[in-house]
Specification:
By secondary structure, this protein is an alpha+beta fold. The protein has six helices and 15 strands. Strands 5, 6, 7, 8, 11, 12, 13, 14 and 15 form a nine-stranded mixed β-sheet that branches. Strand 11 and strand 12 form a beta hairpin. It is elongated, with a radius of gyration of 21 Å. Keywords: Isomerase, RNA-binding.
Length: about 240
Amino acid sequence: MARAGVASRRKSETLISTGHVQVNGTVIRELGTKVTADDAIQVDGVAIQQEQFVYYLLYKPRSVVSTAHDDKGRRTVVDLLDDIDERIYPVGRLDYDTSGLLLMTNDGELANQLMHPKFKVDKTYVAKVKGVPTNDALEKLRHGLVVDGHKTSPAKSKLISVDHRKNTAIVQLTIHEGHNHQVKNMLTAVGFPVEKLRRDSYGPLTLDGLTSGDYRELKSVELEALRESISNKKGFRR
């Protein structure tokens, strides 16, 4: 019901328990009742139809918010996919001034699994930082460090290039956590504040072939690889 846009998950549970929902002509009140695509579902006598799941890979530009709506009137990632009929939303978020890979879908179960910490989905970022990180700084990132009162998990860090004239460097960082501003905070904590940030990959997904603002539907092999990346973790259900 939530996927069909009838109501939120919690409101849908209330509708079921109070007898507003029928499956194949029979009122059901038991939460968690299993249905299939062949079952006829009605809410107060009105038939509902579940949306087909869709999956899009977006190269989010900077100065775009990773939400479906914005109270300040700023452009959102949903605005960029305005020709998509389904009601889709981003899996996780990228900061307003951060660009890069963002998965857009209406598959709430997969989205929740990808964002849950126990599945440890790797996300790789490329950052332009002020200064040139030392080996000691990169080692601190690799072993984890305390940021905002908690210790980060070990990250993969790599110095990509250095511009000595401008005193900047390009650093690659791979993490599986998703705390607010985590990459920026980690690099700032070791003394190298971020000037620009881009997410280059999310699990097996990459930005290959896309430029900023582009999007495309996920290929079946990519979706399978994405599911496979979490299928061996405890609690996964397909």
